[in-house]
UniProtKB/TrEMBL annotation:
Top-level taxon of the source organism: Eukaryota
InterPro entries named among the record's database cross-references: DUF6533 (IPR045340)
Keywords, alphabetical: Membrane, Transmembrane, Transmembrane helix
Coiled coil: none
Membrane-traversing stretches: 17-36, 57-75, 95-116, 123-142, 171-190, 211-232
One Pfam assignment: DUF6533
Location of region: Disordered: 292-315
Keyword Transmembrane helix attributed: yes
Native organism taxonomy: Eukaryota, Fungi, Dikarya, Basidiomycota, Agaricomycotina
Record-annotated DUF6533 domain positions: 18-64
Segments of skewed composition (Polar residues): 292-308
Protein known as: DUF6533 domain-containing protein
Length: 347
């Protein structure tokens, strides 16, 4: 009952309320902030492919799927039947976390697969590590003893507590995800440092930099969440789970929206384009596109990838079309992922 709750427990409830309220606010606010770009860059593409499919699923599974989670933390009632419903909501929350992280991992794999020029070995390595992380997550959620603390009925939300045993298993699951994120982060940094440094910031270098920023933040978020399982109190263990899921979903959506920015390609990108034709790309950052200024200092012009990497036009275009997944702006007809070899032929 509520009268059995201590001051430390009340402090744990407050931490849950505020952190989850911040996560829900971020999720909804970012959705409305990016709704118009989503309509322009995805809804108008006309066709569905792997890139758009993962984008929609990540976007709306996170937005709609967190509605029951909001109920878990902010449902106000004194009905004793609330305790059994809370148990179901807590299990649902754990399954939702697995689904969201799995979708985000798939998008990460696509990104690294493209950056490594569609290397089958890189793809196999990522799939194996991701599968192991998913297996550990399922083991943590489905297996083990069902020990729990005595149920507590509080006026607002559910008293979500975890025993030390449960926290250890769930912490191990997030540790598997942390290992996967660290692997992807390391592969992104390796790719960034393996390319020769150019005076201009090209599309490739900015994509690598943005990817490094994304993965660095996610590694930090996953590490912080894992630490709450290890050192938190019964009512604060895993308190950052919702926030970590929201950050993953929001940031991966932002990256995919940026890849379809209308300023990304300044020349036509039709299938009939010759492989020797010069492609110019504006610089894009994690927050949007920007332009370089020419030597005269008068006009802003896009950076040309062909100037900094003249020997790899096919691979650069292959990476770009794979990551972007197509765009319908300016009559660009890229409704599916195109892969070009070094000679510019579709593969």
């Amino acid at each position: 009952m509520a009268e059995d709750v201590t001051l430390n427990d009340l402090a744990g409830f407050a931490v849950n309320y505020y952190i989850n309220l911040a996560a829900f606010t971020l999720l909804v606010y970012d959705y409305f902030l990016t709704f118009v770009p989503e309509v322009e860059r995805f809804w108008c593409s006309g066709r569905l492919n792997w890139a758009t499919g993962f984008f929609y699923f990540n976007r709306y599974a996170s937005l709609l799927g967190h509605a029951p989670v909001m109920m878990e933390f902010f449902w106000s009632t004194a009905n004793p039947a609330k305790i059994s419903i809370c148990h179901s909501l807590q299990s649902y929350h754990q399954y939702l976390a697995i689904v969201i992280q799995l979708v985000v991992a798939c998008i990460m794999i696509m990104r690294i697969y493209a950056l490594y020029e569609c290397s089958v070995k890189v793809l196999a390595l990522q799939i194996i590590v991701a599968a192991l992380a998913v297996a550990v997550g399922c083991w943590a959620v489905l297996g083990g003893k069902k020990e729990t603390f005595p149920d507590v009925l509080i006026p607002t939300g559910c008293a979500s507590s975890l025993t030390r045993y449960q926290a250890t298993r769930l912490g191990a699951a997030w540790g598997g995800l942390l290992f996967f994120d660290t692997l992807v982060f390391g592969m992104t940094l390796y790719k960034a440092f393996s390319f020769p440094h150019a005076k201009e910031i090209t599309l490739l270098t900015v994509l690598l930099r943005d990817g490094a920023v994304f993965f660095c933040i996610m590694v930090a978020a996953n590490l912080g969440n894992m630490l709450t399982f290890m050192f938190g109190t019964p009512y604060t263990r895993g308190v950052a789970t919702t926030l970590t899921n929201v950050l993953s979903s929001v940031m991966i959506s932002r990256l995919m929206l940026n890849l379809r920015h209308p300023a990304l390609v300044s020349h036509g990108t039709s299938r009939s384009m010759a492989p020797t034709e010069e492609l110019t790309y504006p610089n894009i950052t994690f927050f949007g596109p920007s332009y370089q200024t020419d030597s005269s200092g008068t006009d802003a012009t896009p950076t040309s990838l062909s100037e900094s990497e003249p020997t790899r036009p096919g691979r650069t275009r292959m990476m770009y079309t794979y990551l972007a997944g197509g765009s319908n702006r300016n009559n660009h007809d890229i409704d599916s992922i195109e892969l070009l070899d070094r000679n510019g032929h579709l593969v």
